[in-house]
From TrEMBL:
This is DUF932 domain-containing protein. It comes from the Bacteria.
Length: 114
C-alpha cells in the first residue's frame, strides 16, 4: 500500500539584506550637504519627497509666448536683479534652465554670464 505524505505549503520568510560595512566608501560630503540644507529641502522619506514634487507640479504652468513680447525689467532699488515679464502679466516669470538658455542665445550672451 502506498501512502502519501501531506504537502505543507509555507510562505518564504523575508530575510533582511546584510550590509558589509567594510565595502564601499564613506563620503562625508554627502551627509554634510544634507545637514546644510534648509528644513524645507530635507526629506526623511520618499513619501514626503513625492508629496512635495507633486505639489510643485500641480502649481506649475506652461505658456507659449513670443520672445519679442517679453520684457526685462531692472528696478532702481536692486539693479543687479532682473525681472522677466510676459505681456499682460505683472508677475515675474521663472523660466526653466533650458528656456533661459534659449533666451540668452537670442540676445547673444551666455546664460552663465546673465
Amino acid at each position: 500500500m502506498t501512502s502519501l505524505a501531506p504537502v505543507i505549503e509555507t510562505t518564504p520568510q523575508a530575510v533582511p539584506w546584510r550590509i558589509d560595512v567594510n565595502r564601499g566608501q564613506r563620503i562625508g560630503r554627502v551627509s554634510s550637504e544634507w545637514f546644510l540644507r534648509p528644513d524645507d529641502e530635507k526629506f526623511l522619506s520618499l513619501t514626503d519627497l513625492y508629496a512635495r514634487v507633486c505639489a510643485r507640479a500641480d502649481k506649475a504652468s506652461t505658456r507659449i509666448v513670443e520672445s519679442r513680447s517679453l520684457r526685462v525689467e531692472a528696478r532702481s532699488d536692486n539693479a543687479e536683479r532682473l525681472t522677466l515679464l510676459a505681456p499682460g502679466d505683472d508677475h515675474p516669470i521663472a523660466p526653466t534652465n533650458w528656456s533661459f538658455g534659449q533666451l540668452s542665445s537670442l540676445v547673444g550672451a551666455p546664460a552663465s554670464y546673465l
